[in-house]
Write a structure and sequence with these properties.
Helix 1 (about 5-25) packs antiparallel against helix 2 (about 30-50) and helix 13 (about 385-400) packs across helix 16 (about 460-465). The protein has 17 helices and 17 strands. The strands form 3 sheets. Strands 1, 2, 3, 4, 5, 14, 15, 16 and 17 form a 9-stranded mixed beta sheet that branches. By secondary structure, the protein is α/β, with parallel strands linked by helices. It has helices at about 5-25, 30-50, 155-170, 175-190, 205-215, 235-250, 270-280, 295-305, 310-315, 330-340, 350-355, 360-365, 385-400, 410-415, 420-425, 460-465, 495-510, and strands at about 75-85, 95-105, 105-110, 120-125, 130-135, 135-140, 195-200, 215-225, 255-260, 285-290, 320-325, 345, 375, 440-445, 470-475, 480-485, 485-490.
Length: about 525
């Protein structure tokens, strides 16, 4: 018995003796009352002493608690192990053999070697012979235009747009086409490892519905132009409708609504600033085509006396909300302006090559510290949505354009579709790398068992130069598996193919009139 307890016991004995003496006096009730009071004091004191901090043992930190192995165990929903993990963080941390643990919609552990014994997975995936990396980010797209794939090819941009695409859209674009065309695009993107994409089109509410149904993440911009378009007779009514759309989707876990003035040459200063005001009101991104062709430069210069990026700066349009597609025809000063205002440029190499729009100065942008994303552009101007193929084209295009094989490496190209792409669209706090606390958007790419995948001496080289969409075997978005074993988990593919066949027949008929 310790000294504190002995002291309390002695006090209680003495108290009892005292109370007995009082009880034998003329007023026995007073003794009993004192006894009860003193016993209460002793009991309360004893309770307080029992909770007093114990002396620390040597080497034990203040407040240290020894946990049992059960207490330290971590149970996760998805545990991907034994794969080659490319985290794509700022240090390009690479684990030749590693694991990623997912709980709910977040990454909770990333590490090298075997999974620690205390981590238990409800579902475990053996990723031996696979690369594990963040989901790819397609920074510029027009998803519903899958229905128009191949409608008009081998044409210059302005001819393609004004004489083929705009008339075809006026005759065919409606909510049904937009919805099913987006689902078809989602099927292709998910199968190719894309987990987030940036879109601009009409009836964007239907784009959002289809994207959410597919389980993808999207920054989806309602397009505004100065002339009548399928879902708006003029820019004013288009912006008002866009506000309804922005309010509806503002807090969705997968969808970030945006407003998308088409370009500086198709939107007036008034329209551009009204779109910016709407973006500020709802705290959403601004998506726009910028400096795509030399003809655009000519039109903007005739209108404003300067170039597209300078014009947007002069009217107060540029800020960190802006996601600028293409930025092909920009000079050093304009690159510095984009850096100054936090603009996110998105490179679209295959579309720019196919339409002979030019070659964006991506190496100069990267050297200036800009986070440059990469996109496929729409399926009517590419004509596929294979982002891995896009990375291959980007790296090789800049090598031949600069006559320098070192100018854009495979590792840099892959960063443009992951971490840098996330920064360009202001989403790097959530996605773009495999790091604890980020959303669980990730993919598995098969290397072993594919002739083009072996041998693999460098993982970045294998992914960018050797492998394509066909090598993606699993896609996870927000912690949910949306593609595995060759099948999509949230889309009825047969239904989509049937609907798109009907829509394409209707489109073909309209073009023949």
């Amino acid at each position: 018995m310790d000294s504190t307890k002995k002291s309390l016991l002695n006090s209680l004995i003495k108290t009892g003796a005292c109370s007995r003496q009082l009880a034998s006096a003329e007023e026995p009730w007073r003794g009993r009352l004192i006894l009860l009071k003193l016993m209460l004091v002793v009991l309360v004191t004893a309770a307080g002493c029992s909770e007093a901090p114990q002396p620390q043992q040597e080497g034990q930190g203040s407040g240290a608690v020894e946990e049992s192995s059960e207490d330290s165990a971590l149970t996760v929903d998805l545990l991907i192990e034994k794969g080659a993990v490319l985290t794509m963080d700022e240090e390009f941390t690479y684990h030749p053999v590693g694991y990623v643990a997912v709980k709910g919609d977040e990454i909770v552990e990333v590490g090298a070697g075997d999974v620690p014994a205390e981590i238990h997975g409800v579902r475990r995936i053996d990723a031996s012979g696979h690369f594990v990396l963040p989901g790819l980010i397609n920074g510029h797209q027009h998803a519903p235009m899958t229905v128009m794939r191949g409608v008009a090819d081998d044409l210059a941009l302005m001819d393609w747009l004004q004489n083929y695409i705009f008339p075809a859209e006026a005759a065919n674009v409606d909510e049904e086409m937009v919805y099913w065309g987006t689902l078809l695009a989602a099927m292709e993107m998910i199968r190719g490892g894309t987990t987030l994409y940036v879109d601009m089109y009409y009836y964007e509410d239907k784009v959002a519905e289809a994207t959410a149904r597919a389980g993808m993440r999207g920054i989806l911009g309602e397009t505004i132009l100065d002339f009548p378009v399928p879902d708006a007779k003029d820019p004013k009514s288009g912006i008002e409708a866009a506000k309804v759309y922005l309010a509806k989707w503002k807090d969705h876990p997968l969808i970030i609504p945006a407003i998308a003035p088409h370009s500086p040459y198709t939107c007036s200063t008034e329209t551009l600033l009204a779109c910016k005001a709407a973006a500020e009101e709802f705290d959403v991104p601004l998506v726009i085509h910028v400096a795509e062709t030399q003809d655009e430069l000519r039109q903007v210069k005739e209108k404003s006396g300067t170039t597209p990026v300078r014009y947007l700066r002069d009217i107060g349009f540029l800020d960190q909300r802006v996601i600028a597609a293409h930025t092909v025809w920009v000079d050093a000063e304009e690159i510095a302006l984009m850096k100054q205002f936090g603009v996110g440029p998105v490179h679209n190499p295959e579309s720019n090559m196919k339409l002979a729009s030019g070659v964006a100065p991506v190496p100069d942008m990267l050297d200036a510290g800009l986070a440059v994303g990469i996109g496929t552009d729409g399926p009517a101007s590419n004509n596929n949505l294979d982002l891995l193929d896009e990375l291959d084209s980007a790296a090789k295009l800049h090598k031949i354009h600069r006559m320098d094989p070192t100018v854009l490496s495979a590792r840099q190209a892959l960063a443009m579709a992951t971490r840098l792409g996330a920064q360009a669209v202001d989403m790097d706090h959530l996605v773009g790398s495999l790091e604890i606390g980020k959303k669980a958007d990730l993919i598995l790419i098969k290397s072993d068992g594919l002739p083009q995948g072996v041998p693999s001496f460098d993982p970045y080289s294998s992914i960018v130069y050797s492998l394509g969409a066909e090598a993606v075997v699993m896609t996870v978005v927000n912690g949910s598996v949306v593609f595995e074993n060759g099948s999509l988990t949230k889309i009825d593919e047969a239904e989509v193919y049937s609907k798109v066949a009907e829509l394409s027949a209707k489109l073909r008929s309209s073009l023949e009139k």
